[in-house]
Amino acid sequence: MGKTVFVIVLALIVLSCKSENKLYNKGLNANINLILESKDDIDSVLILDIGQQREFHKIPFRDTIRLDLNDSINDLYNILFYKEGKMVSSPVRHNQIWLNGNNITIKGKIDNKLIVDTIIGSDLYYKSKSVSKKLSGLFNKKVEDSIIDNYLFKKIKENIESPLSLALADNYILRNQNKLKNLERLNELLINQKELLKNHSFFRPHAQLQKTIQVKNLEFSNYKFYDLRNDISTIVLDKDKKYIIDFWFVNCAPCVKDHKHIATKKDWLTSNNFELIGISNDKDYELFKNYIIQNKYDWKNYREGDSLKSIRNELDIKAYPTYVIIDNGTKIEKIFNSFEDVEDYLSK
User: What is the rounded distance in angstroms from the CA atom of residue 41 to the CA atom of residue 33?
Assistant: First the structure.
């Protein structure tokens, strides 16, 4: 496949709607023990699970912090630091740590990000680092897709009792969204997972698998969209055309890059009887409209609002851009995540 994406995690930290938890364990056997060095005047630490459903603890910073959590520890956690009331800036991957166990000690330092020296009591941390390193090596070597897929499948199976398997499954699904046999193989593996994992608040491969495997046709007449005038509109597809449905949003850098390229391919699309229709998930109408007008993108573009029945939810779209090829008015033919892959497929 053209472009691949490893496990990308984006969690929205909503600070305003949750209260601070200043109750920290003073004993020697807390669930999480942070022993950290810092040259900065850090005033507080925020610890929360990736879905923000079970844990949300904001506590004063000190060299040694001992904290008891609300639930068992087996998830991806954000550990964030605040200085003068503002979050210390660092890449997301440095804030997020896979943890499992009962009595975990994290040793390290803070230097504009969390730099871990060692973690005691959580083998999941080291397993996740090992998987990430191996996958990066495979990507860099540009090995065959099947080698990467087989490695991912193996690690999903090995970590089947951990949410790490769900994150890896999300990546596997993204890589294999046009390979039904591979998706059915994964579904057979995941189907017997515990309900707690199936209902994880952030990683949702079970729902995504069911939709990807089961949704074969898409009736556009069942959905409504906002057009460029911000009027509610419907989309009617001609059965004699192939359609490329582009799911995007204004602040998506890969989407913007693809749009610049698409603008040079309009004649190719027309001559081959392909029609491009953009569907944005931008909530800001003015931002959406100005982007289209300023760039003079004259293909059809619509916007989905939260109040409307969402086609994105129907397809469980998580990665952007996503391009869905529609044939015969309703049939989902293929799904891609780059226009380069769309071109390669349609050219053949």
Answer: 20
Instruction: Kindly report the number of other CB atoms within 10 A of residue 315's CB atom.
Output: 20
Quote the strand ranges of 53-189, DSSP E.
56-60, 64-67, 73-83, 86-87, 96-101, 104-110, 114-120
Q: Which domains are assigned to the chain? A: 32-124 (2.60.40), 143-214 (no CATH), 220-347 (3.40.30.10)
Rama region for 76: left / alpha / beta (φ>0; ψ in -120 to 50; rest): beta
- The pTM assigned to this predicted structure is 0.75
Q: What angle do CA 180, 210, 202 make, to 5 degrees?
A: 120
For residues 174 and 252, what is the distance between their CA atoms, to the nearest angstrom?
A: 17
Per-residue pLDDT reduced to its tens digit, 298-321: 999 999 966 667 888 888 888 899
Here the tokens at position 328 are 């015969």
**How far is residue 300's CA from residue 234's CA, in Å, rounded to a whole number?**
12
CA-to-CA distance for 44 and 207, rounded, in angstroms?
37
The answer on pLDDT for 170 being more than 90 is yes
Residue 224 · residue 211 · CB < 8 Å? no
Q: Which two tokens stand for residue 287?
A: 């931002």
Q: What is the token pair recorded at 280?
A: 């944005």
Q: Which residue has the tokens 């994992």?
A: 197
Q: Note whether 218 and 330 are within 8 A (CB).
A: yes
- 81-139 per-position pLDDT tens digit: 999 888 886 767 778 999 999 999 999 999 878 899 999 999 999 999 999 999 999 99
Residue at token pair 């909530």:
283
Which contacts (CB < 8 Å, 24+ apart) does range 129-138 have? 131/155, 131/164, 131/168, 132/6, 132/7, 135/6, 136/6
Rounded CA-CA distance 256/279 in Å is: 13
- CB of 84 closer than 8 Å to CB of 93: no
Within 13 A of 129's CA, how many CA atoms are on the CB side? 12
